[in-house]
Design brief:
five-stranded antiparallel beta sheet; alpha+beta; about 25% strand; disordered N terminus; single chain; about 30% helix
Amino acid sequence: MSSSRAQEAVTVRTFAQRFSATRRGARLARMLAVHQLDRWGHPYGSPTSEAVALVVAELAANAVLHGRVPGRDFEVRLHRGDNSVRVEVSDTHPAHPKLPAPDPTAEGGRGLLLIEAVATRWGTSPRTGPGKTVWAECATGES
């Protein structure tokens, strides 16, 4: 290959990383997700960045607090589509989350309600091996 030949740009459409099932791991997952979005053209503070940051933060927190199996990590995947970003968080706990009934007096338990508010859709799916994947899709505002 000659040096005068132009190199083709590689379009990366997926980001995946495993994190320790700790609060620090959840915080790092959110930070790296927002960094990846910036590299994909959704700058810090943009509506897409804010929505995905919230989804990653809530799903990672759930993986750490409710989906944690001692000695097992959780994984975050971002898939960049044409009009959306799909967030997937996988852990090894078999229980699937359910949308709670709103309780205005509760101190917590609103994470899935927040995800439902900012995501275009969300759900769960099985994964290879133990556990499940919880996913959510956020619109990018592009057409």
